[in-house]
Write a structure and sequence with these properties.
Elements lengths: L1 H13 L11 H11 L3 H16 L4 H15 L3 H14 L4 H13 L3 H14 L4 H13 L3 H14 L4 H14 L5
Helix pairs in contact: 2-3, 4-5, 5-6, 6-7, 6-8, 7-8, 8-9, 9-10
Length: 182
């Protein structure tokens, strides 16, 4: 009986933590794998694992609201999605993924300048949020701030080296900015 109890205790302590989000300790290993990925398919598998952890907030209520926001986005009901994401930002202001999701939604709604602070908040909370960095870089590039765009793109590719379209943007911006005093 004691052996069975000890084994059960061992298994429970080895289980993944209930809390995920950007503080999940499994992310460190996944980001190392992402940095070492040598092919886009390999990187995509790791990206999916990272994104699945980012979507787990540690709160059942928040997870339901996030899922409903995604359903609203899928149904092209941006207003409902935004209201749901607004609620989550109030409930869990330290949850990076909600800031990214709301920022990305605002960009999709042609409110890029309104979405930028949310994207930057996501990066503040999770500096490895390469998706937020890429989108924030695009906003900077679209507004003419090419130096900031280049910096954000480089940070994203340092985290996820398989971002091929972002690498092309880096090459184009670096060539364009070379020798210019900005």
């Amino acid at each position: 009986m004691r052996i069975a109890l000890a084994f059960l205790l061992f298994i429970l302590t080895m289980a993944a933590p209930a809390r995920a989000d950007q503080s999940d300790p499994r992310l460190d290993r996944l980001f190392l794998q992402l940095a070492k990925a040598t092919t886009p398919p390999e990187a995509q598998g790791v990206e999916k694992e990272i994104q699945s952890l980012w979507l787990l907030s540690g709160s059942d209520t928040v997870d339901v609201l996030m899922a409903r926001a995604q359903q609203s986005i899928d149904a092209q009901d941006a207003a409902t999605a935004k209201r749901l994401l607004d609620s989550v930002t109030e409930m869990r202001p330290g949850y990076a993924e909600v800031w990214y999701q709301r920022g990305a939604l605002l960009v999709a709604m042609d409110s890029a300048q309104e979405g930028l602070p949310d994207l930057l908040r996501a990066v503040d909370l999770e500096p490895r949020h390469y998706q937020a960095l890429v989108l924030a870089g695009k906003i900077a590039e679209d507004s003419g701030d090419k130096r900031t765009a280049l910096d954000r793109y480089r940070k994203a590719v340092a985290i996820n080296p398989q971002l091929e379209s972002t690498k092309r943007k880096i090459a184009a911006l670096a060539a364009e900015l070379e020798g210019k005093d900005i």
